[in-house]
Amino acid sequence: MDFTIKLSFIVLIFLFAWLYQEQNQEWDLQRNLLKDANNFAAHDAALQIDDDEKSRGRLIIDDTLARAVFEDSLQRNLGLDGSFNPRPGSPVLSEVRILHFEVFDESNATFPFFYQNPTYRIAQWIYGPSVISVIETDHPRFVYRVFQHLPIRVPAIQEYKENRL
């Protein structure tokens, strides 16, 4: 009887350790998916340059169009519906939330400048017109109420830099 109790306890510990490892591996996969999709979406948004202003020699990003393209790119790259919930077959396990989307260009900033956002713990020099975004999703949970984690939060900064050759 003593052996059975010890063996059961060891199996239980092994099971929880295995589930914890699997959950963290799934976190890593989800984070990589979100990071890639956020980088692609921020890049797509940064391409929304106003042609009239470009003909005058200024890089001005159309804020409204950039946001729409950003959202569309996220939905396509992650397999999300219109409310950013995963569709069947999507690699994402839960809803994706856009926490922050900001555009800096020659109409609202002087470059270079040091960008700081303490809410999302971003601090970086910005050298040209940029799109800054932060998205998040829930941490995957295999055993509810045993392992509580913070959501997966991913920033992206896409900027135009002056070619200094």
Distance between the termini: 77 Å
What is the number of beta strands? 5
- What is the spatial order of strands in the main beta sheet? 1-4-5
Shape: elongated
Q: Given the structure, what is the number of helices?
A: 3
H/E element sequence: HHHEEEEE
**What class would the helix/strand composition place it in?**
alpha+beta
Radius of gyration: 21 Å
Helix content: 40-55%
Count of domains? 1
What does this structure look like?
The chain has a 3-stranded antiparallel beta sheet with strand order 1-4-5, covered by helices on one side. A hairpin with a 4-residue loop joins strand 2 and strand 3 (122-126). The protein is 40% helix and 21% strand. The protein has one domain (2-159). By secondary structure, the chain is α+β, with helices and mostly antiparallel strands.
